[in-house]
Structures are given as C-alpha cells and as structure tokens.
Design brief:
five-stranded antiparallel beta sheet, 11 helices, 44% helix, Beta-Lactamase, 255 residues, alpha+beta
Length: 255
C-alpha cells in the first residue's frame, strides 16, 4: 500500500476496484478512479426507462404499492422523485403545481414556502433532519448539485412560529417524525430508507426508497380512511394506468 501511495507502484484494475470497495466509494466515483488509473469504466449508468430495468422497475413499483395506505417514494441521488404510491398524492394536495411539475424534488417539495413547509408542524426539526442528510451526501460525494440545493433551501423563509419547539411526544425519543397538518387531522410518520443490495449499475446504486410509517394510532386511522376513499377511483383505472407519482400528485394539487 505504501508503494501505491508514494507512486512507486501502479495499481492494476483489480486493486483499484478492491480499494474502492473497501472504502465504500460510490460506483459513479469508482469509474472516475478507474479512468484516473488508465482503465475503462466498469459500471454503466442506465435510465430507469431502459429495458434492462424492466423487472427492477416492476419490483420497485410493487414495493411502493404494498406500502399503501402509507406514503412511499423512490428518489435518485439528487432527491428527484422517480416513483411513488397513491398515498403521496393525498398528502401533497394543495401544493403549488409548479413544485409538482417534473422533475419533482422532494427536499424542495418539503421545505419550499409554497410546498409542504407551512403544513409541517415540526418544520424546524424536519428541516434540520433533511439538511443533515444532504450534508452527509455532500461529504461523501462532493456533488455540486446537492451543494446548490442546500444553498437554495437554506434561504427559504421559515413560517411564523416554525422555530418554536413543540412539547416532545413519547415517540420522538426514538426518531424525528414528520408531523403534518391536514384537513383530516394531524399526521405523524417515521421514515425509513431502503437501498438495493450489491448494485452494479450506477442508477440503481443511487436509488433509494423512502417509506413512511404511522407514528401514532390517529395516523393509522386517517390513512386507512383516505385509502378507502381513493379505492373506488383506483378500481376504474386500467393496469397500464396504475398511479404514478407525478401524474396523480399534479391531479391532486389542481383539485
């Protein structure tokens, strides 16, 4: 290793990949390392519409649907929404349609004054949570697009009273929830992040599934009721018209 560090020896392709694997270097950056060492890239970057993604895309959409009646989304490395289930549409109803025009950025949707921000009861905490996650990504990748996103959302004004800390509930000792005011009543969700194991495609390696779980009994009841109200509409949709994130979200926003 010292010979490699001092330049007395040049790593072969296998050594570059081995070091990248041990250091948990993202696949996108492993290609950069290979190029710097004089080798061709090892990892492809395909669009989600690529035929090679057909089965993976089907599985992803199935996981999102199975999470109903609770919201779930798939996002890429820049927090652009790639897919979602029907529950998301009901939660973004009333958001400025411009924020729901593709590409939909989840961070911007959450923190923009015309987005969900005025309805997020614990906005100060949720904002800090999102910015911390972005900071971790930037530390790992140095992505200039994420840097610009942080700079943008950090300038968003905070609604009056948003900086006041509400009295903690019992579940807040476990994780910071997303607490959202809706016409059906206040909702509270824990969020989890799922990634694909051992991806060898750049796009898939940068794709995450964000699933939101009810943090209290009231949220369980409200989400079930919303789902039951949506069911008659969904029953008239043909399979090829199955709900997709942007289309339904924009429909909900427009009333």
């Amino acid at each position: 290793m010292s010979f490699l560090e001092t330049g007395r020896a040049m790593p072969d392709r296998e050594m570059v990949l081995h070091l990248a694997e041990r250091m948990l270097v993202p696949l996108r950056d492993r290609n950069i390392m290979l190029h710097a060492a004089g080798f061709d890239p090892s990892y492809q970057e395909r669009s989600l519409d690529d035929p090679a993604f057909r089965e993976t895309r089907h599985s992803m959409e199935l996981m999102l649907r199975m999470h109903e009646p609770n919201p779930a989304v798939a996002i890429d490395r820049h927090w652009i929404m790639a897919a979602s289930n029907r529950a998301v549409a009901s939660l973004v109803s009333g958001v400025d349609p411009l924020l729901l025009a593709p590409p939909v950025n989840i961070v911007r949707l959450n923190l923009h004054p015309a987005g969900l921000a005025p309805r997020i009861i614990n906005l100060a905490e949720w904002r800090q949570h999102l910015l911390a996650r972005l900071g971790q990504q930037i530390d790992a990748t140095g992505d200039p697009i994420l840097m610009a996103l942080v700079e943008e959302v950090s300038r968003y004004p905070m609604p009056a009273g948003a900086t006041r800390r509400t009295k903690p509930r019992d579940f807040e000792t476990l994780a910071v929830p997303l607490r959202l005011a809706t016409v059906q009543g206040p909702l509270a969700f824990f969020s989890t992040t799922t990634v694909f194991a051992r991806p060898v495609d750049i796009t898939l390696s940068e794709l995450t599934l964000e699933a939101y779980f009810p943090a209290d009994a009231a949220t369980v009841s409200i989400m079930r009721r919303i789902s039951a109200e949506q069911a008659p509409v969904a029953a008239h949709l043909a399979p090829r018209e199955a709900p997709r994130a942007t289309r339904l979200a924009r429909r909900a926003a427009s009333g």
